[in-house]
């Protein structure tokens, strides 16, 4: 028996199989020698796809969660069109003759880093919004669907972290509880677990090993503990 200690996010005691969520990324190799105009057209197509996804998520959030979460995705849609964000991508496409994936990834890193050094904890968390939008653009460029391997059957979902998009797109009938390795009690996902009453803890760190996948576990959202059998 192994007991991991984290920070309680939403109270509740749950027993079930542990499912380790693996985020499926999109390729972002530099691929120098790309045609900037062709990559700009690919970027525009990915923006249009991402915009349609975000519009659908705004509607879903208003129906299932409330206007607060819907406003987050509306903000993501604005960031997707943000002049400075897009211009940074375009400058990389022309300056480095790289593929759109690489330009988007580097732009997301640069812009999120601006938030991460801010003193205000709320503003630091907004860097996660930039990465969420960047992740969505990368997925759109790759023509990919779901962002990670979802559990088949009810399970306690374990992840490094969950961005808001990933959280909303979960099949919540299959998620008994959530455990996050990172310590992010102010994240959108953490706040939504409280709103929806999903038992959750965060901050268990990398003592939560991938090989625990499939083992039975007990999560106590008040005590902030995860016991693995």
How does this structure look, described?
By secondary structure, this protein is an alpha/beta fold. The protein folds into 2 domains: 2-23 and 149-228, Phosphohistidine domain (Glucose Oxidase, domain 1), CATH 3.50.30; 36-142, Enzyme I, Chain A, domain 2 (Orthogonal Bundle), CATH 1.10.274. It is built from 7 helices and 8 strands; from the N terminus they run βββαααααβαβαβββ. The chain has helices spanning 36-64, 67-80, 83-96, 100-116, 121-142, 164-168, 188-196, and strands spanning 2-5, 7-10, 13-20, 155-159, 175-180, 200-202, 216-220, 225-228. Strands 1-8-7-3-4-5-6-2 form an 8-stranded mixed β-sheet, with helices on one face. α7 (188-196) links the parallel β5 (175-180) and β6 (200-202). α2 packs across α5 (121-142).
Question: Could you name the key traits of this structure?
Answer:
single chain, 229 residues, Enzyme I, Chain A, domain 2, eight-stranded mixed β-sheet, elongated
Q: TL;DR of this structure?
A:
The chain has helices at 36-64, 67-80, 83-96, 100-116, 121-142, 164-168, 188-196, and strands at residues 2-5, 7-10, 13-20, 155-159, 175-180, 200-202, 216-220, 225-228. With 229 residues, it is an alpha/beta fold. Helix 6 links the parallel strand 4 (155-159) and strand 5.
Which term fits the overall shape?
Answer: elongated
Level-1 CATH class name of the largest domain: Mainly Alpha
- Multimerization state: single chain
User: How big a fraction of the residues is strand?
Assistant: 15-25%
Number of domains: 2
Number of helices, where a helix is a run of at least 4 consecutive DSSP H or I residues? 7
The N- and C-terminal alpha carbons lie at a distance of 5 Å
CATH topology of the largest domain: Enzyme I, Chain A, domain 2
Low-confidence stretches: none
**H/E topology pattern:** EEEHHHHHEHEHEEE
| Biggest sheet statistics | 8 strands, mixed
The overall pLDDT average reads: 87
Arrangement of strands in the largest sheet: 1-8-7-3-4-5-6-2
Helix share bin: 40-55%
Relevant CATH superfamily of the largest domain: PtsI, HPr-binding domain
- Which structural class do the helices and strands define? alpha/beta
- Structure summary, number of beta strands: 8
CATH architecture classification name of the largest domain: Orthogonal Bundle
Using only CA atoms, what is the Rg? 19 Å
């Amino acid at each position: 028996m192994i007991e991991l200690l984290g920070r309680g996010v939403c109270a509740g005691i749950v027993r079930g199989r542990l499912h380790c969520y693996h985020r499926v990324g999109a390729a972002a190799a530099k691929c120098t020698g790309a045609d900037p105009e062709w990559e700009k057209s690919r970027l525009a197509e990915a923006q249009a796809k991402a915009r349609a996804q975000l519009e659908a998520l705004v509607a879903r959030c208003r129906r299932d969660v409330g206007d607060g979460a819907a406003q987050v995705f509306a903000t993501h849609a604005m960031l997707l069109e943000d002049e400075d964000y897009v211009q940074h991508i375009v400058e990389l496409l022309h300056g480095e003759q790289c593929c759109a994936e690489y330009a988007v990834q580097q732009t997301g890193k640069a812009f999120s880093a601006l938030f991460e050094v801010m003193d205000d904890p709320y503003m630091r968390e907004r860097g996660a919004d930039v990465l969420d939008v960047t992740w969505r653009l990368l997925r759109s460029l790759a023509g990919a669907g779901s962002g990670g391997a979802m559990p088949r059957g009810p399970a306690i979902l374990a992840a490094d972290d969950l961005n808001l998009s990933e959280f909303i797109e979960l099949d919540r009938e299959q998620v008994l509880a959530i455990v996050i390795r990172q310590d992010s009690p102010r994240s959108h996902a953490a706040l939504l677990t409280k709103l929806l009453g999903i038992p959750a803890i965060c901050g268990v760190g990398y003592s939560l090993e991938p090989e625990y996948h499939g083992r039975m576990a007990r999560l106590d959202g008040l005590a902030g503990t995860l016991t693995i059998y």
